[in-house]
Q: What sequence folds into this?
């Protein structure tokens, strides 16, 4: 691990935990969403990374959705937050149990407006109950359907089956979002080379009706022309 990487790791850990404690102190969802966005700007600005939506005309201005996105980088949630900044769409992230227990992300994840997904639980009823409560409060649900970061040299790996169930059970239209840039490569360049004016491009897909029976992954690949 080189010095630049160590320096950024310490800063990111400090910043993430600082905002984690700030999030713990606020009660309203609105304040949590505002702090999440502020955290996103603070960290990505430090890295000299901006976010651009290539087709903003397709981005709904408001509404509740199941937002789905590909996932290749640790900063992808921050990218999504900024992509939605000019809209009223705010949501709770589906977060794995490992993130809740993480030294790096734990405090932030537990307090930032998330729904816990425990794959080891004997039943998923608690998870779906939590998603229903979130939607009832007027929020969207954000999820990476691949289930974990895609570390292959491809823009997309296989989707897990559960994502579409969230849409069905909550009657949520599905908002596909595609992070076109390999955010992981951009992140590495930002840390190792301190390159200025880096940019991550995001493309918005067509909203899909929750009753659409086409497999979610098939719809997503066709929409963004992914092989």
A:
């Amino acid at each position: 691990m080189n010095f630049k990487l160590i320096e950024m790791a310490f800063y990111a850990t400090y910043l993430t935990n600082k905002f984690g404690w700030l999030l713990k102190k606020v009660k309203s969802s609105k304040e949590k969403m505002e702090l999440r966005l502020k955290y996103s700007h603070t960290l990505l600005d430090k890295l000299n990374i901006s976010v651009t939506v290539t087709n903003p005309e397709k981005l709904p201005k408001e509404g509740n959705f199941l937002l789905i996105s590909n996932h290749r980088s640790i900063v992808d949630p921050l990218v999504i937050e900024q992509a939605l900044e000019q809209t009223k769409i705010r949501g709770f992230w589906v977060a794995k149990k490992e993130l809740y227990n993480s030294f790096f992300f734990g405090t932030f994840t537990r307090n930032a407006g998330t729904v816990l997904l425990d794959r080891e639980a004997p039943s998923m009823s608690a998870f779906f109950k939590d998603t229903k409560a979130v939607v009832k409060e007027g929020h969207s649900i954000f999820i990476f359907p691949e289930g974990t970061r895609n570390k292959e040299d491809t823009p997309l790996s296989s989707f897990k089956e559960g994502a579409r169930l969230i849409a069905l059970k909550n009657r949520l239209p599905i908002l596909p979002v595609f992070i076109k840039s390999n955010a992981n490569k951009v992140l590495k360049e930002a840390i190792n080379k301190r390159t200025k004016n880096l940019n991550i491009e995001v493309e918005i897909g067509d909203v899909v009706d929750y009753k659409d029976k086409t497999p979610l992954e098939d719809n997503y690949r066709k929409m963004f022309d992914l092989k």
In short: The two ends are 34 Å apart (CA to CA). The chain has one domain: 3-223.
